[in-house]
Design a protein that fits this description.
There is one protein chain. This protein is about 30% helix and about 20% strand. It has about 450 residues and is an alpha/beta fold. The strands form four sheets. Strands 7-6-5-4-3-2-1-8 form an eight-stranded parallel sheet. A six-stranded antiparallel sheet has the order 9-10-11-16-13-14, with helices on one face. Strand 9 and strand 10 form a beta hairpin. The longest helix has 18 residues. The radius of gyration is 23 Å and the shape is globular. The N terminus and C terminus are likely disordered. The structure holds alpha-D-galactopyranose. The site of alpha-D-galactopyranose has 9 residues, from loops. Pfam families: Melibiase_2 (PF16499), Melibiase_2_C (PF17450). It is an enzyme of class 3 (hydrolase). GO terms for molecular function: alpha-galactosidase activity. Belongs to the glycosyl hydrolase 27 family. Keywords: Disulfide bond, Glycoprotein, Glycosidase, Hydrolase, Lipid metabolism, Lysosome, Signal.
């Protein structure tokens, strides 16, 4: 090609990447659900001494089997996701990524085929920089090749981390990799770490670009196996909700990191809290736990269909902390069904106190912003308690255990005689900056 033609072609690609191409893959209309290796299995590469727990094709095959046989798939968990430490340290002669030959002897296409044969989807991890966080080859310099490799392995989900990269280059780099993913013609969920590295570097992430190019993204620290870690994440999302909440919606989600329920660090109450608050946050539900040995009560939390339904609510509105005082927090998320100008809600009462005895919380529905004159059917999502249909004036009382939660669902009641489809005649506008959820009708 002549020199000026090459320059022109180069400019064209850049323009396409910068201005025209957004991710638009139609995926993750509700937050993705699945299993992800990292928090529980880390970078254990010692298959010689620890064959059952090392990062290997056997681990992922086994987890895929259990996701089906133990009923996780039936309640919505779908992705089996590999995290760091799956690679050989060197690319092959064609510059392609190579899975570790000892630990993934049949290769990634074979593992992907196995996961698909179970009716599940397959996810993989890479990093935008020169290396992954654990020091394996990153995608920098090989963006197109690696996107093509993932497509050739029938990958459904890519987590692209941001170690060993310049945060200031991520505004260009993450969309560029997304562009090459699109170019493959295979729809793959694109999970980004773009904002978190920029926030660490003191930058203000450009969330309108991030929403356009990523299906989900990390905002904050890695989750660790402790209640302190879960609390720090809950605080981060509460304290920064005015910036964060409005960015979530069908196809694009904030990712507060994995569910650690069933591991070593959380009590039963704390595990219930993580599940409830993650559902309020419209978070991806990515379990990182040993499904071979999880105790039944923790499995029941992960498989709580009512809470999963809150997480997966089709409106995709992320909830907010609407009250915080003396260790008691109230979190609220607008959900379906809607009736006229009114949402239904999931409401979580969280007790951050450690004074050893349950705390009583009493509040009217109206004080929570639930004002429909038709009333709300209220039920507890962990306990088998149906409060019946309550008016906005009704005061509800809950007892919340230390570091525990009570999560309720309040479904707005319809007045069938006056019923009109909200999507043709009414417009309900959710304003995330309001302290409580106020609803406005028409004129928008
Ligand atoms: C980063 C990510 C983690 C995990 C590790 C792997 O710390 O935030 O979720 O993927 O890298 O090395």
């Amino acid at each position: 090609m002549c020199q000026s033609c090459q320059t022109f072609a180069g400019i064209l690609v850049l323009c396409l990447i910068n201005s025209v191409i957004s991710l638009d893959n139609g995926l993750a209309r509700t937050p993705p659900m699945g299993w992800l290796a990292w928090e529980r299995f880390r970078c254990n590469t010692d298959c010689k001494n620890d064959p059952d727990n090392c990062i290997s094709e056997n681990l992922f095959r086994t987890m895929a089997d259990i996701v089906i046989s133990e009923g996780y798939a039936a309640v919505g968990y779908e992705y089996i996701n590999v995290d760091d430490c799956w690679l050989e340290k060197e690319r092959n002669n064609y510059g392609q990524l190579v899975p570790d030959r000892q630990r993934f002897p049949r290769g990634m296409k074979s593992l992907s085929d196995y996961v698909h044969s179970k009716g599940l989807k397959f996810g993989i991890y890479e990093d935008y920089g020169n290396y992954t966080c654990a020091g394996y080859p990153g995608v920098l310099g090989y963006l197109r090749t690696d996107a093509q490799t993932f497509a050739s392995w029938d990958v459904d989900y890519i987590k692209l981390d941001g170690c060993y990269a310049h945060p200031s280059e991520m505004d260009r780099g993450y969309p560029e990799f997304g562009y090459y993913l699109n170019q493959t013609g295979r729809a793959m969920i694109y999970s980004c770490s773009w904002p978190v590295y920029q926030i660490y570097a003191g930058m203000q992430p450009n969330f309108s670009a991030i929403i356009e190019h990523c299906n989900l993204w990390r905002n904050f620290d890695d989750i660790q196996d402790s209640w302190a870690s879960v609390e720090s994440i809950i605080d981060y999302y509460g304290n920064n909700q005015d910036v964060i909440v409005a960015n979530a919606g069908p196809g694009h989600w904030n990712d507060p990191d994995m569910l650690i329920i069933g591991n070593f660090g959380l009590s039963y109450e704390q595990s219930k809290t993580q599940m409830a608050i993650w559902a309020i946050l419209a978070a991806p539900l990515l379990m990182s736990v040993d499904l071979r040995s999880i105790r039944p009560e923790y499995k029941a939390i992960l498989q709580n269909k009512k809470i999963i339904a809150v997480d997966q609510d089709p409106l995709g509105i992320q909830g907010r902390r609407i009250y915080k005082h003396k260790g008691i927090e109230i979190w609220s998320r607008p959900i379906t069904p809607l009736y006229q100008n009114y949402f239904s809600y999931a409401i979580a009462f969280l007790n951050r106190r450690t004074d050893g005895t349950p705390s009583d919380v009493a509040v009217t529905l109206k004080e929570l912003g639930l004002t429909s004159p038709t009333g709300y059917r209220v039920e507890d999502l962990y306990e088998d308690v149906d409060y019946g249909v309550l008016s906005p004036q009704t005061k509800i009382k809950v007892k919340v255990n230390p570091s525990g939660v009570v999560i309720l669902r309040a479904d707005v009641q319809s007045d069938y005689k006056r019923r009109v489809p909200y999507f043709t005649t009414q417009r309900t506008v959710y304003n995330p900056l309001n302290q409580v959820f106020r609803i406005r009708s028409n004129g928008f």
